[in-house]
Amino acid sequence: MTTESVSDEITFAYWVPNVSGGLVTSDIEQRTSWDYDYNVKLAQTAENNGFEYALSQVRYEASYGAEFQHESTSFSLALLLATQRLKVIAAVHPGLWQPAVLAKLGATADQLSGGRFAVNVVSGWFKDEFTHLGEPWLEHDERYRRSAEFLQVLRKIWTEDDVDFRGDFYRIHDFTLKPKPLNTVDRPNPELFQGGNSLAARRNGGRYSDWYFSNGKDFDGVTEQIVDVRASAREVGREVKVGLNGFIIARDTEKEARDTLREIVEKANKPAVEGFRSAVQQAGNSTADKTGMWADSTFEDLVQYNDGFRTGLIGTPEQIAERIAAYRKRGVDLILGGFLHFQEEIEYFGEKVLPLVREIEASERSADHTLVGV
């Protein structure tokens, strides 16, 4: 199998902790906070340590250790206005948003931030968030069909006037949005991300989004997805980039990193993890081929609720840098990192890990140029 496209340099993003409880469902100490002041400082630290993107999570109902949440689009705009270069991605759910309304919000956020706003379309896994709000719950592939229309409507409204769209889920009639988002030659409109693991998610990622987000995966798992996503993109004459989730435990020694992982799992909040498991595994298993998110996740995987341990970014700076470089060679364009102690670990990553990644990339580029010249 070939993934065909390899970036010169891999890009880094981090999960915004705008949801309480941290990124692992464990009673281990997590030096993080969901409040605004903490997150402003964290965003500024991240952009000064080599991170180009931040992803604001979206949860609507208190549950599974995430009792408090800041809404993703408003929180993203707040972080954009507190930073200079960082691009902030707001996660949103079709079915709870009307795409033209989000397009209006996105255009304003993009204008106010100088073109740094982006959207991650989440097709939905938490049934209670829909039914408790009186919204219909669609089965898996229908949710992704709705997301496909949602992505198309956003793109059209951000780039065209007098928009008409007649789909099964959305009807837009002669609609013009002004001002539109900032447009440049290399960035025509806010970037659109599509998450998921299933074949329906891969199809949407290839056909309609700029980026495809994968849950945590090992080398074989992410390569399979990249091949599928880029094949879908080629069918319609497009290109798509790929982001991979990974929980990063970088320590001075491998033993320290492995001991930290062991403690996280040993101190897992078992009722919360099992509650999350029961809510999400129906999502993956509801697909015909059982390829959806969390379909084969173990208890240990779900302690980090986006399978972040599976990516294997656990060890010394040298080990992690080599593994990140190996993912890049397989076609990964972005690593979306989660951390136990966000502030200090993002600083550690920027100081210890990222320079090693750049050294490996520069060495590989030099070797490639040498081979070309032979």
From TrEMBL:
Q: What is its EC number?
A: 1.14.14.5
Q: Which InterPro entries match?
A: DMSO2_SphG, Luciferase-like_dom, Luciferase-like_sf, SsuD_RutA_monooxygenase
Q: Identify a single GO molecular function assigned to this protein.
A: alkanesulfonate monooxygenase activity
Q: Which UniProt keywords apply?
A: Flavoprotein, FMN, Monooxygenase, Oxidoreductase
One of the GO BP terms on file: alkanesulfonate catabolic process
In terms of SUPFAM superfamilies, this protein maps to: Bacterial luciferase-like
Please state every residue range assigned to the domain named Luciferase-like. Answer: 14-333
Give one Pfam family: Bac_luciferase
Record keywords: Oxidoreductase included? yes
Supply the CDD domains for this chain: Alkanesulfonate_monoxygenase
PANTHER family on file: ALKANESULFONATE MONOOXYGENASE, ALKANESULFONATE MONOOXYGENASE-RELATED
- The name of this protein is Methanesulfonate monooxygenase
Organism name: Gordonia insulae
> What is the phylogenetic placement of the source species in the record?
Bacteria, Bacillati, Actinomycetota, Actinomycetes, Mycobacteriales
Gene this protein is translated from: msuD
